[in-house]
Design brief:
Number of helices: 55
Shape: globular
Number of strands: 52
Structural class: alpha/beta
Oligomer: single chain
Helix content: 40-55%
Strand order of the largest sheet: 1-5-16-24-23-17-22-21
Strand content: 15-25%
């Protein structure tokens, strides 16, 4: 039996722990064994008995150890090392749980306090066992005379290809490499993979090397490199290029290559220089880069002994290349390392050997390939001298990035036809297909590439191709966690990192102070969010996590400190508490003196943690700290995800359901070393957005992660679902490939010259599609004058803008404004008619009688109708005759419209004159005046457009101006000295030269500059280059205080906080500033702010710089010690229109207990000890140097970034307090002592759309979809929404920032409003779903009374709660809806708008998920406007000129609109109806559990609050009010008194347990289903979206069958309704008045005058349609009475009436241009009737 050594063997420990974890998992899985890859659903209930009983008994663990062949002392070693935690059961017997499962269980049940809610509400566990060698597998040394089959085969191959002597040297180098790296040997799978890779190279194949993460792929291609070098006799014309997707990975593997190069030098006497060219090479201009650091790559390059490499002579480093070892006692300190780290290496190697290995990345290579000049750097010629390109982590080259990469590799083959590619990757389901796409390889009839060899560890292991199978493995405990909708994923990540770090310090690491063997990494994609993670992490530590604010540890009794305990049973049964041995607890949780942290462990976690991302200047230093164990907790972006060996990482959290390949790489960073068990806990937690919720529930998403980690065999059907691809058919990739290949072929044939303009013509002329384009821009290209070019470009833009405005006016603008005027006129007429009836008989006579008013009304209505009809003719003239001269006809029609409009104005003015001066008519008089002005303006606009068109009609005929603008922009750049052919190719194809991803090259890039103020004025200290304006403002919104330390360009005092804020100009009509200085500017065009009494607009392209100012230096030197206050200009004193203030900065001085503190000075100088003293005296527990914390007025009136504001700084000047006249206690309304990180403000845009070139497809009577190929979108940023507590307040920008997206594209989804409303009527009134009706009614009441002011509507609802039913406005509205058809219609129109807005969210997220697109490229649009209800949703491309061609991409993805729609409906049924409803059931179970806990203590404040809440909700539901959690929490606001609760009930507690009272987190929509981050109405989206309505609607319009893995869905093409004749007439109008309707055929028994009037309107509205009525002869007499109207219709030439015998059908057929038909059948004859009829509408 094996004995446990004193030094625990971690691979032996892995075997035991795996057995323990499987037993634990079995308990969680209800006694069933846990299969690899099986998804195990857990309960989000903290006291779930399976968590409490998840342990192995003393007997079980001993049996496991014995069965595996170990001594019982092994148990003590596992406990001693903290790998097994010892608890006690209810009988006091020892039981055990692995530290990994214990952390996992507490990760599931993580919460802020013992009795608060779990963050996670849908946890799932997956165990994955991956075949990865142990050190016991790697025991094979390479020998020339080995008897091991695999080694013998390798030696035979080497002898055959490079000869006996070289083969011996090859073996010597392999073994020497093992010695230097400290490896015992190779495993046989590695040996076989090396042999297969070499053999494939010899055969001239491209190669794919595949193995799971952590397997040792690097050594495979490392020795392939050795073979290639030796085979080619170290020929500099046979170089090796290695591409890495991350700089950290490149540096890590460079150190392995350094070892290999030194061994080659020692064994073969050959120098192998390495060139590092990864985009940020050494800057040789030392005077411009003053740094004391002589360590290249931050000291991360090492000699074979592990010492840092330094420049031999830093001052001469750019002239005398080479490095040496920094350790003078090291043998390598006297040797030179031939490593060239510069972008001018050719100048440096005149007397040095040329590089044989080049290390780079695809971004750099793509740029260098298009460099056609003879440079000191790499250029196109260098690619002729490359033998193989090795692409490490090849599986990352997917989607757009993969498409561009494929184009670059194809281009390299044009320069070097004999080059070969090697792709090294994790397991890929469709590896052959994927690598063929990536390498642009031809495929055979079987679809497989002929020139590709796959070298796979999985094939070798699964097919038993080695004589000694691998014993090693890695075990993953994966958690797929869906977060609670109202919880912060940031808060979860921050607390999780504290908990995981506590395990590492208290249990796993042998020393408390480090270095740390067990570490954890939190991955967060966004740099700004990463900084917020760090600040929040520090905040939690500042308030006492994990031991509590004032820990009092006791050595002699049981301790329970915050979330730490030494109680063995309590920690087993209560998932909140972490068990720590009493001695360690006393050490770690004892209070500290003179520290801002309350305990030693808090201080340790704060000082031994950090963040790292690739833009950070300190990234290399961070890599080093992680690798050497100085940090225990690491927050990182993707910078750490690829191939880097950090030996101590055991726990991984990924914040967000990110790309599967990224997830796999990140999880692969854990458990890579033999120093720790090969067991990793990996948690993927969704963010609070529907897209992440969908992914975390998607079986295919989880399946791809499982497959790539494990490499287990799967079926061909499963493989299809898991495949990865490159995006080669996307328009930017296609264009880039064409231009790249064209340029390289031109270069090969000597056609490129020194003239950029000529080269552009040459490249374009070789592409057939672009020849006509050359002719259009030839004159421009040949221009030599840059100013003329810009002038030309500007003139084209102005012409295009005029054209767009003209087309927008005549397509929609005029009719929209006319309809608005009609609505306003109808309202004003109704008010005046009512007023006149009041005057009648009371002596207040006016000159206008009711009869005369009605005559005027009829006259005006007829004129409006005429205007509408004439304008339609006018529009048709324009659309049909844009290429002919139609000026006379156009002018005639326009004059007719103008004459009618002027008659309308005169008639209204006549009415206005007659009521002028009479009591009670002033408001109506003013409304009539506004109407006449609006008509005058509309008339004037029409005249101006007419005159403009008549004077020069040609300018409105050319629709190619958008392309001209784009070309002019690029050609103008060529006239600048730095613009070249490479830039043209990237710009023209809309590919970023930096990230090789799609970018809107026409959209301007701006620079964020950070200014600090000193005695000599402002100075730029940091910058963020080249971001789109809105993208940058989304990351760094105005008035958001952010940490900018990582942007600072020079080294400064690290103790000084660095927090900046962007201060754009404000609209002074709505705002005022205290302490504002005139320097504050948003735009670099002017040194003074653009502020005026008028609201101005500025084109986004005029902005090239956005300025952010350091708050503290701004205060000190510009504001002279004053902080900055932004204040809303006082308005009406109501709750929903309050004054509010933002305080940005801190007090200069503060007096506490009679002593003055220089706050501002302390912060500026980094006197943290003095600040801490003050913080302690004020009992502030936060890190007081962090200025992104905020304190807020709970009533939403003020916000302060000064943490020392323990009292409201605005109290003495608060208008709200003054208006309450002492009735308000501000002490209860200020957030001290709590503070939170500042919410990111929202950017609030206005939108305008104009489109043409639309092709429509009618899928069903309800659904029509369109491909919009030409769309102009105008986005205007006019305000920023600042969150003060739970209240959002607007700050208005002046100037507004406007962006016009020319000629982009979209898809449009239209739902026939009449049919949809009829469906909604069935759902809400006839479906028996009273709760859904009440939910929508509650939202309608709030919106109706507040519109987009949510608080106003909530206040109205609250006021109504305490009225009795007879006086309740809510009850009255409900009654009116049920009894009054007009009011019911208004309610249903609101429900329709809610449905459309919800659909817009859902379709947007669906397409984001399916297309894998960046949110910067795609947006949705739906105008929520009850005055003019929109029937269409747009999903549009958010780029100028539609670089992506989104509409084509969508159709290519789905094939047709019908497939798109059915896939979308399946998505809704699967993700929302199924998965989200399961999620809701989880939440209800969790809330029910918490209700029981609260009810168990009837003396608690929580219980009394719950009773009061139950009573409140019962009262609301009796009235038909059904609030969601947001509405309820606003009603319970502790500062608003909206809803009074019984005396003694704490409203803050009531608000906290609102969810428990409701019993549901998602009553009708949450951030996991339909509430999204990018909503265009962020303050009201819970009111104007409805998950339940969407669910019921989708079920109604589809026929669906549930399958094993989803749904089979078919759109219903037929709908049956009941309704009166008004519904029939309405549907007939809706379907027949469409522009593409060409025939209306009616077969009925009876008609009446109402029917013919409707037909008349249809003929007027649709000039294309022809109408035929077949009428039964029984109705012949009625026809005679209608003869006059029938003749009028016949005179149109488009109406025919046929009298036939025996018609018994009632059929209405509408025929469209594309041949589609919609039929209406049922019981309705075409006549007015109050009787309910049957209608069936079908395609």
């Amino acid at each position: 039996m094996a004995q446990a050594s004193h030094e625990l063997n971690m691979e032996d420990a892995t075997k035991v722990l795996e057995a323990v974890i499987r037993e634990e998992c079995k308990i969680l899985n209800d006694g069933k064994d846990c299969k690899d890859g099986e998804i195990i659903n857990l309960m989000p209930i903290p006291n779930w008995d399976r968590y409490q009983n998840c342990y192995v008994s003393d007997q079980q663990i001993k049996k496991i150890i014995t069965d595996l062949g170990y001594d019982q002392s092994f148990l003590d070693e596992l406990v001693k090392r903290g790998l097994l935690l010892r608890f006690v059961d209810s009988q006091g017997n020892p039981v055990y749980r692995s530290v990994y499962m214990d952390l996992f269980i507490r990760s599931v049940n993580l919460r802020n306090a013992e009795w608060s809610f779990n963050y996670i509400l849908k946890p799932r566990l997956v165990l994955i066992k991956s075949s990865v060698p142990f050190s016991s597998d790697r025991i094979y040394r390479i020998s020339m005379n080995s008897n091991v089959k695999e080694i013998r085969n390798l030696i035979d191959l080497l002898r055959r290809e490079i000869g006996e002597e070289k083969a011996k040297k090859f073996v010597e180098i392999m073994n020497a490499y093992l010695d230097i790296k400290g490896y015992n040997g190779f495993d046989l799978v590695q040996v076989e993979m090396i042999r297969e890779a070499i053999e494939a190279y010899v055969k001239g194949k491209h190669i794919g090397i595949e193995a799971p993460t952590g397997f040792g792929k690097t050594e495979i291609f490392l020795f392939l490199i050795l073979f290639v070098l030796m085979k080619n006799d170290f020929n500099p014309n046979k170089r090796i290029l290695i591409l890495y997707p991350r700089k950290s990975l490149a540096i890590d593997n460079t150190n392995r290559l350094i070892v290999l190069a030194k061994l080659i030098e020692e064994k073969l006497g050959k120098v192998v220089p390495i060139l590092i060219r990864i985009g940020d090479s050494m800057n040789c201009k030392w005077e411009e880069n003053p740094s004391n650091d002589d360590k290249p790559r931050g000291g991360n390059l090492r000699c074979p002994k592990g010492h840092e490499l330094v420049f031999r002579n830093k001052e001469r480093a750019c002239h005398e290349p080479g490095l040496t070892c920094s350790n003078t006692s090291c043998e390598y300190s006297r040797q030179m390392f031939y490593i060239y780290d510069t972008n001018a290496y050719k100048r440096l190697i005149d007397h040095e050997p040329e590089p044989l290995i080049i290390i780079s990345n695809m971004n750099t290579i793509a740029n260098r390939l298009l460099d056609f000049k003879n440079r000191d750097d790499l250029d196109v010629e260098d690619f002729k001298r490359i033998d193989i390109i090795i692409m490490d982590e090849a599986h990352v080259y997917t989607s757009i990035f993969g498409g561009v990469t494929s184009a670059v590799l194809e281009g390299i083959k044009k320069i070097n036809p004999h080059i070969r590619f090697v792709g090294v990757s994790a397991t890929i389901p469709n590896r052959e297909e994927f690598l063929a796409e990536l390498f642009s390889l031809p495929v055979g009839k079987d679809g497989m590439p002929q020139d590709l060899a796959i070298v796979s560890s999985l094939d070798i292991v699964n097919n038993n191709k080695v004589s000694s199978p691998l014993k090693g493995f890695k075990l993953y405990l994966l958690g797929f966690f869906e977060i609670r909708p109202d919880a912060s994923w940031q808060g979860y990540a921050q607390l999780w990192s504290i908990v995981a770090s506590t395990y590492s310090i208290a249990h796993l690491n042998q020393t408390v102070s480090g270095p740390y063997t067990f570490q954890n990494i939190v991955f967060i994609n966004n740099v700004l969010e990463l900084n917020r993670f760090r600040d929040g992490f520090q905040q939690y530590l500042g308030i006492g996590e994990p031991c509590g604010k004032n820990p009092t540890a006791n050595r002699n009794s049981t301790n329970k400190l915050n979330r730490i305990t030494d109680d063995y049973e309590l920690s087993r049964i209560n998932t909140f508490y972490i068990l720590i041995d009493r001695n360690k607890l006393f050490n770690l949780c004892s209070p500290l003196n003179n520290s801002k942290y309350s305990s030693k462990i808090s201080e340790l976690l704060a000082t031994r943690s950090g963040i790292v991302f690739m833009d950070s200047a300190s990234k290399y230093e961070a890599f080093k700290k992680i690798k050497e164990g100085e940090w225990i907790t690491v927050g990182a972006t993707s910078s750490l995800e690829l191939g880097v060996d950090y030996e101590g990482v055991s726990f991984i959290l990924n914040a967000g359901a990110d790309d599967e390949i990224e997830i796999v790489q990140r999880l692969g960073r854990a458990a890579r070393s033999s120093k720790i068990p090969r067991i990793a806990v990996g948690i993927i937690v969704s963010k609070n957005v529907p897209l992440h919720s969908y992914r975390i529930n998607d079986i295919n998403y989880i399946g791809r992660i499982i497959y790539m980690l494990s490499g287990r065999r799967i079926s061909s059907n499963q493989r299809t679902d898991l495949d990865i691809h490159v995006a080669s058919e996307v328009r930017p990739v296609i264009t880039f490939r064409k231009l790249l290949i064209s340029a390289l072929e031109a270069y090969n044939h000597g056609k490129l010259v020194n003239e950029v303009k000529q080269n552009i013509i040459t490249v374009l002329s070789q592409i057939p599609d672009e020849i006509n384009l050359i002719e259009r821009i030839k004159d421009l290209i040949e221009s030599e004058d840059y100013s003329k070019c810009i002038e030309y470009q500007s003139s084209i833009e102005n012409e295009l803008l005029r054209y767009r405005q003209f087309m927008e006016f005549f397509s929609e603008g005029f009719i929209d404004e006319l309809n608005r005027i009609r609505r306003e006129w109808n309202k004003t007429y109704a008010e005046l008619a009512e007023k006149l009836s009041e005057f009648n008989g009371v002596g207040n006579k006016v000159d206008l009688s009711s009869d005369e008013l009605n005559e005027r009304k009829e006259e005006i209505d007829n004129l409006l109708r005429n205007v509408n009809l004439i304008f339609r003719d006018l529009k048709e003239i324009l659309e049909k005759n844009m290429n002919t001269n139609v000026t006379s006809e156009f002018k005639e029609k326009t004059d007719s419209v103008v004459n009618n409009l002027e008659k309308i104005r005169e008639s209204i003015e006549n009415i206005q004159r007659k009521i002028q001066g009479y009591i009670g008519t002033k408001e109506i008089f003013e409304k009539l005046g506004r109407l006449t002005y609006d008509i005058y303006k509309l008339t004037n606009d029409l005249k101006n457009y007419m005159n403009d068109y008549v004077s020069d009609p040609d300018r409105y005929k050319n629709k190619e101006d958008e392309e001209k603008i784009k070309l002019a922009n690029l050609i103008c750049k060529t006239l600048k000295s730095k613009y070249d052919l490479r830039s043209f190719i990237f710009d023209f194809s809309s590919i970023s030269s930096a990230g090789l991803d799609i970018e809107d090259s026409f959209s301007p890039k701006v620079t964020l500059k950070i200014y600090e103020f000193g005695e000599n004025g402002p100075e730029v200290v940091g910058r963020k280059e080249e971001e789109g304006v809105f993208k940058l403002l989304a990351k760094y919104p105005p008035f958001y205080v952010f940490n900018y330390s990582w942007l600072v360009e020079r080294r400064t005092n690290p103790n000084v906080p660095r927090f900046a804020v962007i201060l754009p100009s404000l609209n002074l009509n709505l705002m005022k500033w205290n302490g504002q200085s005139d320097f504050i500017s948003f735009i670099d065009e002017s040194d003074s702010p653009i502020i005026g009494s008028r609201i101005e607009e500025i084109d986004v392209r005029k902005i090239s710089e956005i300025r952010a100012f350091d708050l503290l230096s701004l205060q000190k030197h510009k504001l002279k010690g004053n902080y900055l206050i932004v204040q809303l200009k006082p308005g009406r004193q109501r709750y929903y229109d309050d004054v509010y203030r933002l305080k940005l900065g801190v007090d200069e001085r503060r007096e506490v207990d009679g002593k003055q503190y220089d706050i501002l000075d302390y912060l500026l100088k980094g006197y943290n000890d003095k600040l801490q003293t003050l913080a302690n005296r004020l009992r502030i527990n936060y890190d007081v140097t962090v200025l992104s914390y905020v304190r807020t007025c709970l009533a939403g009136h003020g916000l302060s970034t000064d943490l020392f504001d323990v009292k409201c700084p605005f109290e003495n000047k608060c208008e709200i307090k003054q208006s309450m006249q002492g009735q308000i206690n501000c002490g209860d309304r200020w957030s001290y002592p709590s503070a939170n990180l500042m919410h990111k403000p929202w950017l609030d845009f206005d939108y305008k759309f104009a489109f043409e070139n639309e092709s429509r497809t009618r899928l069903t009577p309800l659904v029509e979809m369109s491909k919009v190929d030409s769309l102009t979108v105008e986005r205007t940023l006019g305000r920023v929404l600042i969150y003060i507590g739970d209240y959002a307040r607007p700050l208005y920008l002046n100037p507004k920032i406007k962006q016009i997206l020319y000629n982009t594209n979209a898809i449009r989804i239209k739902l026939d409003k009449d049919i949809a409303i009829k469906i909604l009527e069935d759902i809400l009134f006839k479906g028996g779903n009273t709760k859904l009706f009440n939910i929508i009614l509650t939202k309608y009441y709030i919106f109706k009374n507040g519109e987009f002011n949510l608080y106003k509507g909530i206040m109205k609802l609250a006021g109504d709660l305490w009225r009795n039913n007879s006086k309740s406005q809510y009850v009255k509205l409900m009654t009116d809806i049920l009894q009054n058809s007009k009011i019911r219609q208004e309610f249903l129109e609101f429900a329709y708008a809610v449905l459309m807005h919800t659909l817009a969210h859902a379709i947007y997220d669906f397409l984001l998920d399916k297309l894998k697109l960046d949110e910067d490229l795609i947006d949705y649009y739906y105008d929520f406007n009850l005055e003019n209800i929109q029937d269409s949703i747009y999903i549009y491309e958010k780029t100028t000129f539609g670089v992506l061609k989104l509409s084509d991409l969508i159709l290519s993805k789905f094939g047709n609109f019908n497939k798109l729609m059915t896939d979308f409906l399946e998505f809704i049924l699967k993700e929302i109806v199924d998965e989200h409803n399961k999620f809701i059931q989880y939440t209800k179970s969790a809330l029910q559990s918490l209700r029981k806990i609260i009810q168990s203590n009837q003396n608690s404040s929580e219980f009394r609050a719950l009773v009061a809440m139950d009573s409140l909700l019962n009262n609301m539901r009796q009235r038909g009010i059904e609030p969601d959690r947001e509405i309820l929490k606003l009603l319970l606001s502790p500062t608003r008194d909206f809803v009074p609760l019984p005396q003694g009930i704490n409203k803050m507690i009531a608000e906290d347990i609102a969810d428990v009272a409701l019993g549901d987190f998602c009553v009708d929509g949450c951030s996991s289903c339909v509430l999204i981050d990018n909503c265009h109405y962020p303050l009201n989206q819970n009111i104007i979206t409805s998950r339940n309505l969407l669910e019921e609607f989708v079920k109604y319009i589809s026929n669906y069958t549930k399958m094993d893995l989803g749904y089979n869905v078919i759109l219903k093409t037929s709908f049956t309704f009941k309704g009166d004749s008004d519904f029939g007439f309405s549907i007939l109008r809706s379907l027949a008045e469409r522009e593409d309707a060409v025939r209306l055929n009616i077969e009925v028994a009876y008609i009446d005058g109402n029917c013919l009037t409707v037909i008349e309107d249809i003929l007027k509205q649709n000039p294309k349609i022809k109408v035929t009525i077949k009428l039964d002869s029984r109705d012949k007499e009625k026809v005679n009475t209608l003869r006059q109207l029938i003749e009028k219709l016949k005179n149109t030439g488009r109406f025919n009436l046929e009298i036939v015998n025996d018609i018994h059908t009632k059929l209405y057929e509408i025929v469209y241009e594309d041949g589609r038909k919609i039929m209406i059948s049922g019981s309705w004859n075409c006549e007015k009737s109050q009787k309910e009829q049957n209608f069936t509408i079908h395609v």
